[in-house]
Amino acid sequence: MTDKTLFQKIIDGEIPGTFVHQDELCVALRDIDPQAPTHILVIPRKPIARIAEAGEEDKELLGHLLRTAAEVAAAEGLTGGYRIVVNNGPDGGESVPHLHVHLLGGRALTWPPG
Fold first, then answer.
1. Per-residue pLDDT reduced to its tens digit, 29-54
2. pTM (2 decimals)?
3. What is the 3-state secondary structure (H, E, C) of 23-40?
4. For the chain, what are the domain ranges?
5. Region at 13 (left for phi over 0; alpha for psi -120 to 50; beta for the rest)
6. Beta sheet of 101-105, edge-to-edge order
7. Is 109 helix (H, G, I), strand (E, B) or coil?
């Protein structure tokens, strides 16, 4: 990826975002178009376009994103449950080509989604 993505600009402070978590590997911020009462994005600082493009060297980072989502869910009080979603490609609902994990909760979520 050569141009900065929207998420890289937010991480770099060029665009504002409401952060709920930051560490050396990722950030978590509130989605600006929430699809549930709690909708938080967990985004790696490393720019990976999508999950299908993550490499063998990214396994630890991918696990960190999921653990971070669980920790943020606990901090947000999502004791009744939550959903973790990763979109891949346009047909998968991807709108920003920078890997991110959606954390959705705060209401009963139906199945199947979309």
1. 999 999 999 999 999 999 999 999 99
2. 0.95
3. CCCEEEEECCCCCCCEEE
4. 6-105
5. left
6. 19-22, 26-30, 38-44, 101-105, 82-85
7. coil
Q: Which of 39, 98, 100, 102 is catalytic?
A: 100
Give me the residue label for tokens 């560490």.
23
Cite the DSSP H helix spans in 1-114.
6-11, 59-75
Residue 2 to residue 60: CA distance in whole angstroms: 24
**39 and 102 Cβ atoms separated by less than 8 Å:** yes
Does the active-site annotation cover 102?
Answer: no
Q: Which amino acid is at 109?
A: L
DSSP at 91: G
Distance CA 85, CA 94 (A): 11
The mean pLDDT of 13-18, rounded to a whole number, is 96
The mean pLDDT value for 55-60 works out to: 98
Using DSSP's 3-state secondary structure scheme, residue 96 falls into coil
What fold is seen in the domain 6-105?
HIT family, subunit A (3.30.428)
Q: Which residue is associated with the tokens 């994990």?
A: 101
